[in-house]
Design brief:
Shape: rod-shaped
Order of helices and strands: HHEEEHEEEEEEEEEHEEHEEHEEE
Oligomer: single chain
Strand order of the largest sheet: 1-2-3-6-5-4
Distance between the termini: 169 Å
Number of strands: 19
Structural class: alpha+beta
Largest sheet: 6 strands, antiparallel, barrel
């Protein structure tokens, strides 16, 4: 309801007249002209003031700038309404400079009527304009200076005149941040510093680039980690783990061995042992030999070099791998021994010779050879027996290749290819020449070779030495003989002298050793030097174990009576 009083303000802006005072005091900051005094009873009623609700431009809604508004006091006299420090200066009362155009000189409301009918008490409606934009300016380093009182630029709370109402300004749709060179100053004058608007479409997005780089780095790291993980997994799958097992092991020694150990014997003997390869007459063979002297003579078996014949080739390979051609010096099938010689080879080491008569059963021995062409093979064993009469060969129909050996038996493994190799004692001295083995009946094809079953035989070195010397010196070997023909079909115990010799000749050679000793056809020889003989082969072996010229004591049976005779061995050239 409009009762002519402005809402939110005092009903009477004028002070009450004091007794006797017929004049009206002018409002604070206004001076009435002389003669303008009007008694209260005669005073014209004030023009009705339209309802002016407080808005953004009225002083009732003006910002307090951080200072609480003091209560209204009457000017000059307490309790009397009057102009206060917040009343506007006459120069700021609207465009007319003060009162209403209908009543010049009379007091008017401080603000123009609200053309938008803004709801009272500053509550904005949907049609209310946006408040003006406050433009902050940079604050000087020494702070914002305050102008003297009365300056129009000083805010009302500091004694200055009330600022003129500002026209509403449009709201910025997108408030933009100030540039880094400006700081917010609540007391700065509007428009002191321009606003800088950043276009988001053109502004570099560093954070986005960093995020993208991080994502790319993470992807690459994932790929690398995946590859490493796959490799580790494959390694674990193949090797069963990623750790290595290290087992305890004794440190290496200086390599020294006792001279009488197998290793010590082999170290001394191997440089003197050679491997022979023979070709000729459509046949070939492999065997072993050992060096006899520094001139290049090498001792081996007759059946090793026999395939070469008269025009075959013999190749010698030393333990260090050197190879040389060899020539045949001499051979003897009855003793199964042969000597070859190499030339143009220096630094040869002869293998020392022992004494086979001193060997005892059970003595340790070492056999060296090339079984099945495996060069420098070393085996060890013992002497299993002595004076074991054996015969070997006999592949030729006439028996010219049969050898008779009073052999040393050993259990040291000997196989095809060991033939001709040395059998040495603990001092690495030769006591025998490996020549024959007893193989198990395997039922294999004809000509097949069987391995060792622990029955090996070697020619005693005493016999080998004599034959080798003869072969080197004369190219031939002599055989001791007694001058009789034996009946090889006799099945009784002992060796029986035949009734007739070959081609009808006498069985006892006239003038020979047996004839001189009194041996008769049909006698059965049972002992030689006290040792029993059970066959004609054994008698031959026992005789050939001696040298020509040796004296033997024979025990024989004639017409059921036992007799003893002494004879001297004769000599015959070997084939």
């Amino acid at each position: 309801m409009d009762d002519g009083k402005p809402m939110g303000a005092k009903a009477n802006w004028w002070s009450r007249p004091r007794s006797g005072d017929t004049t009206r005091p002018a409002p604070h900051g206004l001076q009435d002209e002389p003669g303008d005094a009007v008694p209260p009873a005669e005073a014209a009623p004030a023009a009705p003031v339209p309802h002016v609700p407080p808005d953004s431009s009225s002083h009732a809604s003006e910002p307090s700038y951080g200072v609480s508004r003091p209560p209204m006091e009457r000017h000059g006299q307490p309790g009397t309404p009057g102009p206060g420090p917040f009343e506007p200066d006459p120069s700021e009362r609207g465009p007319s400079g003060g009162g209403s155009p209908h009543a010049p000189g009379r007091p008017q409301p401080l603000h123009e009527p609200d053309r938008y009918s803004t709801p009272p008490y500053g509550r904005p409606g949907p049609w209310a304009p946006a408040p003006p934009v406050q433009r902050p300016v940079p604050t000087p380093a020494g702070g914002t200076p305050l102008p003297p009182a009365g300056d129009a630029s000083v805010p009302p709370q500091y004694g200055g005149p009330r600022p003129a109402p500002q026209q509403p300004q449009p709201r910025l749709t997108h408030p933009t941040p100030m540039t880094s060179q400006f700081q917010y100053d609540p007391w700065g004058a509007p428009g002191a510093a321009p606003l800088t608007v950043h276009d988001e479409s053109t502004t570099p997005r560093r954070k986005g680039r960093r995020t993208g780089a991080l994502l790319i780095g993470a992807a690459l790291l994932a790929l690398v980690a995946g590859g490493i993980g796959g490799g580790v997994g494959a390694y674990i799958e193949r090797n069963g783990g990623i750790t290595q097992v290290e087992l305890d092991q004794a440190p290496a020694d200086d390599g020294g061995r006792a001279p009488t150990s197998v290793a010590g014997i082999a170290a001394r003997a191997l440089p003197s042992v050679v491997t022979l390869h023979v070709n000729g007459g459509g046949e070939q063979g492999t065997g072993t030999g050992f060096v006899l002297d520094r001139k290049g003579h090498i001792l081996t078996n007759n059946h090793v070099v026999d395939p070469a014949g008269a025009s075959g080739e013999i190749s010698v390979t030393f333990s260090g791998g050197e190879t040389a051609r060899a020539t045949l010096v001499g051979k003897d099938s009855g003793y199964d021994l042969a000597v070859v010689k190499v030339t143009g080879v220096s630094g040869l080491t002869p293998l020392p010779l022992g004494n086979s008569d001193s060997v005892q059963v059970g003595d340790p021995v070492v056999a060296i050879g090339a079984p099945f062409d495996l060069q420098n093979t070393v085996t060890s064993g013992i002497i299993s027996a002595k004076e074991r009469p054996i015969t070997a060969g006999g592949e030729k129909g006439d028996g010219s290749d049969v050898s008779y050996v009073d052999a040393l038996q050993t259990d040291a493994p000997i196989n095809p290819g060991n033939s001709g190799g040395p059998l040495v004692d603990l001092q690495a001295r030769v006591i025998g020449i490996n020549s024959a083995i007893r193989a198990a009946d395997t039922g294999g094809a004809e000509g097949s070779q069987s391995g060792s079953i622990g029955l090996g035989f070697a020619i005693p070195i005493n016999q080998g030495k004599r034959v080798a010397e003869e072969l080197i010196n004369t190219g031939k070997a002599t055989h001791p003989v007694i001058g009789v023909s034996l009946d090889m079909k006799y099945t009784g115990d002992g060796a029986r002298v035949g009734d007739k010799g070959k081609d009808g000749t006498p069985s006892v050679t006239p003038g020979g050793p047996s004839a001189k000793a009194g041996v008769k056809p049909g006698d059965v020889i049972t002992k030689v030097d006290g040792q029993r003989v059970h066959s004609g082969e054994e008698l031959i072996v026992k005789i050939r174990s001696h040298r020509p010229g040796d004296t033997l004591e024979l025990t024989l049976t004639r017409a059921g009576q036992e007799r003893s005779l002494t004879l001297t061995l004769g000599s015959a050239d070997g084939d």
